[in-house]
Amino acid sequence: MYMIETKDLVKKFDNTVAVDGVSLKIQEGDIFGLLGPNGAGKSTTINMICDLLTPTSGEILIQGNKIGTMKNTIGYIPQSLAVYNEFTAYENLRFFGQIYNVRGKELNKNINDALEFTGLTEVRNKKAKTFSGGMLRRLNIACALVHRPQIVIMDEPTVGIDPQSRNHIMNAIRKMNEENVTVVYTSHYMEEIEILCNNISIIDGGKVIANGTKEELRNLITDKDTLSISVDNLYHIDVEELKKIKGVADVRVEDMNLEITSQKNSYNLNELLRYILDKGVRASNIGYKEVTLETVFLSLTGKKLRD
Ligand SMILES: Nc1ncnc2c1ncn2[C@@H]1O[C@H](COP(=O)(O)OP(=O)(O)OP(=O)(O)O)[C@@H](O)[C@H]1O
Ligand SMILES: [Mg+2]
User: Fold this and answer.
1) Ion ligand 2 — residues with CB under 5 Å?
2) Within 13 Å of residue 40, how many CA atoms lie on the same side as its CB?
3) pTM of this prediction?
């Protein structure tokens, strides 16, 4: 059984098809990333999962059940801030806890934990209106955690915030996940998704264009690895000889750099280095070139994730 499963979700707004047949399978313990550019349909998908929008068609199951009965399972962190400016951090959290019928000692403990989680303990008695953008984002997150949901869904929680707040948020997500909370994370920052998420769906134009782990997504666009080696001279290196080493598909020479492309899992690094070093060449820098999710997106859609 999946924590969240959507089947062929569609949402139309008048003439716009915002979500166009999205099927997702999110497992317990996942940090699931929904990656896509502006207008891809991320928020619309999330809002349907959280029962804030009614799908035009399709189905949503939370732990195998219809969403109506499962609302308390989810903590939803909206893209736009939803906190009360005149309330302190503590009062905001108490308010959101009470909405979910958390009371008494349990409420106090959960509030303290949520403050600690998001690094807001010291400012618990300050009004939200005095907070920086990053602190407000963190409070927005804390509010969704007070009822201890099993699933936390975050819609672009790091847009426009300072690095310190970003770190707090990243760490909070990891800690939550260690406590067996399933996290759904939407973003158009592929770096964050790459660092955090074990499973990823890339969406564009309302459709899922690829699914899988980072490795699976990278493998969609390439079955090769490129090794880059900077050397002090290329005089003795015979590119044709390098190409004879097992697994090597291509060798390019640029300035004082060798770029050697091999079939994945060729395990030929020793042979390549031995050849180069045997020629009396000094290597100064060596590394495999990374295929990022940005490259994957570009290759699948012909577009950049961000303009
Ligand atoms: N209430 C609405 N009425 C009409 N069109 C809408 C509405 N909400 C979203 N849309 C349209 O649906 C499409 C998907 O929007 P959505 O907000 O889901 O994208 P997103 O991936 O969350 O983008 P962003 O990264 O900018 O938040 C867009 O073309 C948007 O203009
Ligand atoms: Mg959005």
Assistant:
1) 42-43, 79
2) 26
3) 0.84
